[in-house]
Each structure stands twice: as structure tokens, then as C-alpha cells.
Model the fold of this input.
Amino acid sequence: MGRKRIDMHRLQELVRLHRLGRGAREVARLLEMSPNTERRYREALQREALLEGPPDALPELGELRAAVERVYPPPSSMPVSSLEAWRTKIKQLHELGVGPKAIHDRLRLEEADYTGSHSAVKRMVRQLAKAAGPSAEEVAIPVETEPGAEAQVDFGYVGRLLDPERHVLRKAWVFVMTLSHSRQMFAKVVFDQKTTTWLRLHVDAFRFFGGVPRTIVPDNLKAAVIRASFSHDQPTALNRSYRELARHYGFSVDPAPPYQPKKKGKVERAVQFVKRSYFAGRHGEPLHEVQQGLERWLREVAEPRIHPTTGRSPRELFDAVEQQALRPLPAARFETVEWREAKVHPDCCISFDRRLYSVPWRWVGRSVWVRATEGSVVVYGDDVRIATHSRSGRGRRSIDESHLPEGRRDLRHRSADYWVERASKIHPDVARFIEQVLDSDDVLSQLRTAQAIVTHLEGFPPHRARGACERAAFYGNTSYRSIKTLLARALDLEPLPTVVSPKHGALETPRFARPITDLLHLEETTNEPH
Done:
């Protein structure tokens, strides 16, 4: 007889019925046994003298098992496996975490005389696992949480919903925060898992509960934990934005280990409950309608139900015990803060939310941290504030010219009026000369030439800059090199050549003709006839 066919409770009842004087057929009918089975068990127990005695002093279950096994001993050994020769290697690979399929493939490649099948490997792995028994890590340790001590949070994907603003279907997630003691939960549907969304959902949840739990257990998503802790000796780097939220509300963060969802099983089960009970069949529905329906479902279905673990409804347990155990909400409003690491590009700018912000040019190529609020963007390098910008501004760039290299920062201005205005600050004559430079070529832009001339003239006294422009204009030379040469040779200090303009009308002296007297003067010659 096999072990599986021995039910010691039924055998104990068989002994009691026989001690009461019931017949064999009646006992078999009452215990739902076949007559042959009843007879085998009866004969085995009778051989061990266990059928005699008072009905209220029945033998123990262990005594019955031992008696039956003495008469019908269990099989001494299991059938020999066809992979017995490779048992040791299969056991070693199984203990290293290698699966049956991988073990089978390895044996096929590494063992020339291996002819076993994948099914045989699976059977042997099951035998080895059964013989080894459960490990200590597989034992689930239930944790009783005090009221107000903990809340667990997680996202769950709920399919595609209609975005009423864009009029397109988008991937949607449900955010769930569950109080570990009462199982009261807050849930909201969102289209993204950004840091700002993550923080806003926490604020909404705390406002919904009317208080703050002492510990939050999040998943290892990027918004909460930047670098996951895979062991106790590796540090966990909390997202700086999440750290500021925790400090403001006064809670501590205890991230769940990676790939171990049971460490936050309360919220995992809550997310599955919400998805199965409410979100099933809601593909394509508008977001606002889904959110309104979710709030009603929470009030009328989730909160009043009797929780299988606590034996009470979440709403009843929350109102009676947990709400008053939560930390009070802070008086000051939390200002959403987003921290993000950024790299400084060659144009001395970092990119944040599709806008560029300048930092000192010596940080080009290095990484900095950006702390952004609703109204400001502050940049930190080596934990020191190196730049501050207003988040509200026109244009795609927010540039502080002091961040650019001296001598090159002015080159960013590409307006001709800007350079004419700067030239006028030196002298009006300089501004007029710059206008001549800009108009000197009707095809080729002279903006770079004007930039270079103005920047160079600003390094000289106004009278010298004016003199250089007058001399260059006199000779009709509008190049940067000519201005630089004039100033280098101090020619701007030399007087311009004097030019006498002729009077209007007849010339006093013909410029290219000889006087008429010279033409009428005849030399004396002999005109003798030949």
C-alpha cells in the first residue's frame, strides 16, 4: 500500500466504529471505503491488536501509522532514474540556480555519453528540491504593522485610456498607496511616472488620509530610488526630490528590495485587486470618467468590504484606529522640487524641460545637479550653487552673460542695431562709421566685421577710437585690419591731409592746357625759297 492511500484520521474512525461493534460493511459505507480496502486496514490493525479497547480511548495517529507501515511497509526505494550517473552534477547546477532546461542543454554539450531527456532532468530536479526541503529565505514571515506606522506605494499598468486634451489613447497607470494596518487605500490614474507626478500623488494621498504615516515603502522606480540596494552593504541613493518631500512631511523611506514584490505584498495585492475589480474592460474610456468612477468604487466597494486578513473593513479600521495615529499634516504647503542631473554642453548651458540655462563656462563638459521649483532653476556644482535662473522667461534660453568667457560673450548678439548702439556709447562718429561698415557690401554680411571693430575700439579712449574711424572713413577703408593697424601705429593721432576744393565756375589756371601766349609764340626762322 502506498503512503498516499493511508488517511490516519479515517483509520482512527475505523477503530472507533469497530470498537462500537459496527459491522464491516457498515464501517466501509460510513467511511466511504471499498470493502476490500476496509478489510485490508482492519486486518492490519487487528494484527497489531488495536481494534480492541474502549471507544473513547483511541490510539494516536502516529501509533496507527506505525502499525500500518509494519504490516504494509512503504516502498524501500524509488525507481532508479536514467540520469543517476549525472545526479551529482545536476545537483551542483541546481544549487547554483540553473534551471532544468539549461541543465539539459549543458549535459548535451559537455557530456558525450549523455542521452537523457529534458523531462528526466525536470523529474530529478523536483526530487532534489523535495529532498532538500524549503530554504530559510522561502519562509514568509508575517509582519504585524502598528497603526500609522507604514504605507506601501506602487504603480500598476491599467491599459490605454483616452486623453481628453490630446484626443489620443495613452498608456495609463494607477497609483496606489495602502496603509499597512487598516488596508485603507488611495488610488489615482495618471499618464506618466515622472518625478513631479510621483511627488504630487504623495501630497494628494496624504491630504486624502488627513495625515502622514511614519514610513513609506516604495518600489525601486526611478522617481523614488536612483540606485537600488541589492544587498545590505550597498547604499541606496534616494532621489533628491523624494528626499525633500520626506523631510517636509516627516516620514522615512524604506525601499523594497529589487525583484522581491512580497516585501511590499500589501500594496501588490491592492493593485491587483483594483485592476481586476475596477479596471477590467475599461480600455479607451476617457481619463476623467475613469477617475470619477474609481473614486466611487473606492467609497462603495473597496472601503466597506471585509478584508480577509484583518477581518474588518478598511474604512472601519481606519476611522477607529489608524487615522488618529498618523502624523499631522504640516502647516506649510509643500513646494514641488525636482532634482535632476545634467551635463554642461559646449555652449555653457544645461537642458531642463526643453529650455536652456547657462552656467559658468569653466563647467563645460562636467555634470551638475539642477534643483527646479515652480519659479526657479538653481544649478549646483560640487554641492555649491553656481547659477540661479527664473523658470518663467521668454525664449528658449536663459543666459547670464557673466557665465560666458570674457571677450567672447558679446558674440552671441546677432543684431546690427545692437552693435550700432554700442558704438554710439563710444562716440556718435564711431556709430556712423559702423553703419558704413554694415552697408559696405550689399551681398556679404559685415556683422562679424562690425562686432570685431566695436569690440576692439572699446579698449581705447574715445578720442582715439573716433580718430581711427575718421581716418579710415577718409580713405574709404572699412576693414577690421585697417582699424587695428591705424591704432597700432598711432596714425589716428596724425592730422588728416589738407584738401583744397576748387571754386565753382571757371578755373583761374587751366589744369591741363598751356597758356594761349605759349601757343602763339613763333620762333624766328629763315624762309628762303628753295
